Amino acid sequence: MGLSPYSNPSDAGILCMILVQTAMSISFMKENLLSILHVLRVRMASWDEYSNQPATAEPFESREIPSRTYMEEFRSLIPTIRYDSLSCTAKQDCSVCLVEFKPDAEINRLSCGHVFHKSCVEKWLNYWNLTCPLCRDRMIAPKETQENTTSPM
Q: Where do the RING-type domain residues begin and end (predicted)?
């Protein structure tokens, strides 16, 4: 058995409590900072997003809110349809607002096949979410992919 560096056993317990309290305080400050950034609509990108996307020449400020041209491009590529025009017999809910689709509801069917209310998808896009809310597939394919799929071989 070795000798303890503490004069009595309660000193070791106090040291552990100080370390735990410090870690909890740092975690609390981090969560508060992230909440403030979220309220200010500052989005923290993950490392995966940095590695998968090429660098753009646009400054970050110009990409904070989706442009009208992006919304117009989305509307032209993904047309609005009525829910009753789908050949689906089972009742479904919109995964964004969690409300059941009514037969006359205006919806958007994304390229991945998921269906959402038109207003829900547009609100999702206003928060600069450019992927499907469920599967995270891109809502609008890159221009190279669109050209490859539309050009004859």
A: 94-136
User: Is residue 116 within 8 Å of residue 95, measured between CB atoms?
Assistant: yes
* Of the candidates 93, 130, 136, 99, the residue with the CA atom closest to the CA atom of residue 115: 93
Distance CA 83, CA 102 (A): 7
Model pLDDT for residues 22-78, shown as the tens digit of each residue: 999 999 998 888 888 878 877 666 555 555 555 554 444 444 455 667 778 888 888
Average pLDDT of the segment spanning 115-120: 91
Q: Would you tell me the crossing angle of helices 118-126 and 68-77 to the nearest 10 degrees?
A: 150
User: Coil, helix or strand for 35?
Assistant: helix
* Model confidence, pTM: 0.49
Give, in words, the CATH class of 65-150. alpha beta
Amino acid at position 94, single letter: C
> Would you list the domain boundaries of the chain?
12-44, 65-150
Per cent of the chain over pLDDT 90 is 13
CA distances from 130 to 68, 138, 142 (A): 14, 6, 12
